[in-house]
Every structure is written in C-alpha cells, then in structure tokens.
Write a structure and sequence with these properties.
Blueprint: E1 2-5, H1 7-14, H2 24-44, E2 49-52, H3 60-77, H4 94-106
Parallel strand pairs: 1-2
Helix pairs in contact: 1-2, 2-3
Organism: Alexandrium catenella (Red tide dinoflagellate)
GO molecular function, one term: zinc ion binding
Protein name: fructose-bisphosphate aldolase
Length: 107
C-alpha cells in the first residue's frame, strides 16, 4: 500500500490552525503522518510506502522539511522516514526545472 501526503493534507493532519506561512505546519503534519503510518502498518501485517505528493516550486520549504526529517530518521533507523518524494516543477521553465531538480537529486 502507498500512503501519499499532499502539502494541504499534511497541514490538515497537523491542524489547520497552526502557522504555515513557511510550510512549518505542513512539514509537521507530513512527518507526524509518516510516523503514524510506520507505527500502525505492522499491526496490519502489510508493507507500506510513505510518499509525498506533487511538490511545486512554491512548496519547496515543505519538501526541504521532509528531506531534513528523512536525514534525521535515517541516522537513527538506517532508512529515510519517507519512501519517496515527488518533485514537480513542470510549471517552471525547462532550464530552471532541470537545474533545481539536479540540486535536489544530489541530496
């Protein structure tokens, strides 16, 4: 099963009244949701992938926060918190899209 967190759904998971100007509420919600899924999935005896939904350029602070959480989780558990992420810069000019994606690919 794949569980996918959108930026808006992540903010909702954390609570829509939290500050989210820099996507901090969305980061908190996505990470809390990922931890929840990881903790509950074994009770069902099923493998689960935790994935982030399309991330446009304006949502990069959310993406960065999830990558930071992946790094910290990896240090403690030997695997990232999220199974995969979807960077979607299709609204940006091709050259900018490729340049930004190349930087994130290095991470």
């Amino acid at each position: 099963i794949m569980i996918q967190f959108s930026e808006g759904g992540s903010a909702f998971f954390a609570g829509k009244t939290l500050p989210n100007g820099k996507k901090e509420g969305s980061v908190l919600g996505a990470c809390a949701g990922a931890h929840y899924v990881r903790n509950v999935a074994p009770a069902y005896g099923i493998p689960v992938l935790v994935h982030s939904d399309h991330c446009a350029k304006k949502l990069l602070p959310w993406f960065d926060g999830m990558l930071e959480a992946d790094t910290e989780y990896f240090k403690a558990h030997g695997e990232p918190l999220f199974s995969s992420h979807m960077l979607d810069l299709s609204e940006e000019p091709h050259e900018e899209n490729v340049a930004i994606c190349a930087e994130y690919f290095k991470k």
